[in-house]
Amino acid sequence: MIFRRTTFIPGVPRLLSHPPRRVAPPPQQSHTVTTGYAECLIERLTHGSPESLMELDVAARRHHANALLLHASELVRADVRHEKRDHRGADLIGANLSGADLRGANLRGAYLIGADLTAADLRAADLTGADFRGANLAGADLTESLFCIQSQLNAAKGDTETRVPPSLTRPAHWSPPGGPSLRR
């Protein structure tokens, strides 16, 4: 396989103008290979003609991208899981998960609408597509969560104790310093 060398700016991989090179990585670096392969595919697609983009099988690309993201998630979560916690697509609407240790949990597509996640530990949890509308994240730790996006935080409630990933912004509607606490 051919990969381009990459450099990492906090949270953002960027392709450099180095020429492609062949790589035969050691087995323990398979996640690096997966990332490099994905970057090469993305790079190739971005330089396509309008005609080639119109002919693109988006469903197949989405399926392939999902498989790569799931594999990356499993590699990261394997280092932190101490029990199987697969809550993929789970109905956790209104659930009391206050203080829960959800490190390394798979919460892909979970319905956490109105759930109490006060002081929950969500580090290394896969949050792809999790629905946090109205969820209480007061004091929760999401700093190293996987695939958390801004719209998920915007849909939830939090406070000054809530720790968010460094690439995201604390929503303005969350409790300000010295404001009312959301802890129950």
Could you please describe the fold and organization of this structure?
The chain is mainly alpha-helical and 184 residues long. It folds into two domains: 55 residues, no CATH class; 95 residues, E3 ubiquitin-protein ligase SopA (Pectate Lyase C-like), CATH 2.160.20.80. The chain is built from four helices and four strands; from the N terminus they run E-E-E-E-H-H-H-H. The chain has a two-stranded antiparallel ribbon with strand order 1-4. It has a two-stranded antiparallel ribbon with strand order 2-3. Strand 2 and strand 3 form a beta hairpin. Helix 1 packs antiparallel against helix 3. The longest helix has 21 residues. The termini are far apart.
Short description:
The protein is mainly alpha-helical and 184 residues long. The chain is 27% helix and 7% strand. The chain has helices at 30-46, 50-54, 58-78, 150-155; strands spanning 2-3, 6-9, 12-15, 21-22.
Give the strand tally.
4
Radius of gyration from the CA trace? Answer: 19 Å
Low-confidence stretches: 1-32
Secondary-structure arrangement, i.e. CATH architecture of the largest domain: 3 Solenoid
The order of strands across the largest sheet is 1-4
- Hey, roughly how much beta strand do the residues contain? 5-15%
What layout of secondary structure does this protein have?
Elements: E1 2-3, E2 6-9, E3 12-15, E4 21-22, H1 30-46, H2 50-54, H3 58-78, H4 150-155
Antiparallel strand pairs: 1-4, 2-3
